[in-house]
Every structure is written in C-alpha cells, then in structure tokens.
Amino acid sequence: MRALVTGAAGFIGSAFVRHALGGSFPGRTEVEITALDALTYAGNMENLAPVAGHPGLSFVHGDICDATLLRSLLPGHDVIVHFAAETHVDRSIEGPGAFIRTNLVGTQTLLEGARGAGIPRVIHVSTDEVYGSIAKGSWTEESPVDPNSPYAASKAGADHIALAYARTYGMNISVTRCSNNYGPYQFPEKVIPRFITQLMNGRSLPLYGNGDNIRDWLHVDDHCRGIWQVLEHGLPGEVYNIGGGSELSNLQLAHLLLEEFGFGPEMIESVPDRLGHDKRYSLDDSKLRLLGYAPQVPFSEGLRQTADWYRENSSWWRPLLP
Ligand code: NAD
User: Fold this and answer.
1) What total of structural domains would you count in the chain?
2) pLDDT tens readout for residues 110-156
3) Does residue 290 form part of some domain?
4) Which residues neighbour 271 within 8 Å (Cβ) at sequence distance 6 or greater?
5) Which stretches does DSSP call E strand in 144-257?
6) Which atom of ligand 1 is nearest to the CA of 63?
7) How many angstroms separate the CA atoms of 100 and 176, rounded?
8) Where in the sequence is the domain holding 101, given as residue range(s)?
C-alpha cells in the first residue's frame, strides 16, 4: 500500500508513520509512505528520526495549499491520511487566518488533488471540538456540529468539505473525530507537555480559570490504531468518533502530574480563562467499536510513560520552549 500522509512531521502524523512503517498495524506488512509536511513551527523532522532510514519512507517538504505540487505528487498513491492542520486553540484565538488557510483551503486543495488523481481512499482526521461543548452525555456522529473556537470552526468546515466531496463526487472519504491526544513528541504548547515541562523546569502550572473544564484523553497510539481501523473497514462518507473513555477536569490532570513529579498544590497558578473556553468534551465511539476498535493504553499508565519520555528527551523539547 502506498500512503500519502500529510502533517507527517507533527505529533500524531509522525506517530502514525512510525507505527505504519514499524509494522504495528494489523493486516498490512508492506507499507510505503510519502510524508508531506510544510514544517511549520509544529513540524519537526526529529519526530520521524526513528524511521528516517526506512526504505519505505520518502519525505516531501511542501504545503497542502500548493495545488501544483499536489498534481505531481498524488498520482499512484492508494490512500491519503490527512493530518496537516493548524491545531492550537489559543493560536486560533490570536490569529484565525492561518487556520482558515490551512484547515479549510488546504483541505479543499488536497481533496481536489485527490479527485484529479483518482485516489481510491482518503481519511480526513478531525476532532471532537467540532461538536462544541456538552454538559451531560456524549456526542454520537449524528450530533450537530456546533464549534466555538476559530480552530474548531475551521476543522468543522473542513469536515463538511470532506463529506461534500464524498457525496458529490462519490469519493471514498471517511472522517474521524478524536478526543484530546497525549503521548511522546507532542509540542510543548499543549496542556500535558506544557505542564510536564513546566514542572521539570521547577515552574508552576498555569491553570485556566478554576480548572473545571473536562477533556476526554486518548493516547496517540490508540488514536493511530483507530484511524487504521477506519482506513481498513470504514465506509465512504461516514464519520467515526474515536474516544478515550478517560474524562478528567484540567484540575484533576494538574494534580496527577504534581503527584508524578513530587510537587504539592502550591504549584498550581490560576490564570485568566481562555476566551470561549469549552466546558466539556465527551465522545460516544460505539460506532467504531463495532468495527473492532478499543483503546488499549490505560490513562494512568500512558501518562506515566509520557512523563518518562519527556524526562528522557529534554533535548527534544527544550529548544521548542518560547
Ligand atoms: P501538530 O500541530 O502537532 O502537527 C501538524 C502538522 O501539520 C505539523 O507537522 C505542521 O508542520 C503540518 N502542517 C501545518 N500546516 C501545513 C500545511 N499547510 N501543509 C502541510 N503541512 C502542514 O498537530 P497534531 O496534534 O499532530 O494533529 C494532527 C491532526 O489531528 C490535526 O488535523 C488535528 O486537528 C487532529 N486532532 C488532534 C488532536 C490532538 O489532541 N492533538 C485531537 C483530535 C484531532
């Protein structure tokens, strides 16, 4: 199978490439990957270092908005797995323009290229944030899309474009919507690596508001397994939620990390809340579980492993701190 992976030098895209080339996914031993990435501040070639010499990997430094590049690059691939995006909510509040360009225009440019090249399968990777915020219960794939942040709105728009390409042109596109990911190689602006690196530098944890916002956490390896399951068994024009089943308030998360690093609650510093901060995310992923998916990494174990990875890899994250 020849796969083109966009955003392959980012946190989740690189994990997907490492797993695909490392043979962790069932059923396919021969995988060749074209890794396409614009190497924005979030893209890092070191994320692909463990598979850098793999004969099945070729890296292309390029932009998903570049239709000319896509016209020459896409033909001959069996599948596109589309991760490339601007992804940080706070940055989208500071400057939404880049999010509209990459997440909306970039996705449409990529899909148009896929249509022209007759790519047989496309996975568009999205987020639970497109559903907005939910006080009780969990979203199914039928729940209305109701995004709040510019990031979530740009992803929701991209989801609609992907589904429109499936319906209008009959393309074999599935959309995945995942809960919050954590794991190694995550850029230290995101909450778990941010907290870990703050504590490793002996600094306090900046907690938005009173820390009662709830997120559902999923290890990045489980996310990649879920995407693979959808790639192999998902249906065209369908959306699949990929949940973690580990809901925690940000305050609970802070306490777990304080315990892990041997600090007390005095290391929590309340900071003004994020504008339009979603209160709670929660996914019902029973549709994907019917395809055989279940997360395998318990949160407490995954969090400890992640903390250990950041302890052992400070040369990776120190240069990325502001
Ligand atoms: P990331 O920010 O770590 O990586 C994004 C990658 O995309 C980077 O390597 C960057 O260089 C690349 N990129 C950005 N603009 C590009 C462009 N115009 N052309 C080509 N490459 C470009 O993001 P991530 O956390 O790995 O997220 C990957 C995908 O998963 C995103 O689509 C995101 O919306 C989705 N997602 C993330 C989470 C999460 O918790 N991190 C949860 C659910 C869904």
Assistant:
1) 1
2) 999 999 999 999 999 999 999 999 999 999 999 999 999 999 999 99
3) yes
4) 206, 207, 208
5) 173-178, 180-182, 205-208, 214-219, 239-242, 247-249
6) 19
7) 19
8) 2-185+219-245+279-297
Q: What's the CA gap between 81 and 17, in Å, rounded?
A: 10
Among candidate residues 37, 129, 221, 285, the one labeled active-site is 129
Q: What is the pTM of this model?
A: 0.97
Q: pLDDT, tens digit, for every residue of 92-120?
A: 999 999 999 999 999 999 999 999 999 99
Ligand 1 atom closest to Cα of 242?
43
Asked whether residue 285 is domain-assigned, the answer is yes
Q: How far is the CA of 264 from the centre of ligand 1 (A)?
A: 33
Which two structure tokens, joined as six digits, stand for 241? 């939620």
How far apart CA 243 and CA 217 sit, in angstroms, is 8
What does the block give as tokens for 216? 């559902």
Ligand 1 centroid distance, CA of 37 (Å): 10
Question: Partners of 126 in the beta sheet?
Answer: 177
The reply to whether 86 falls in a domain is yes
CATH number (domain holding residue 148): 3.40.50.720
Flag whether 105 is in a domain.
yes
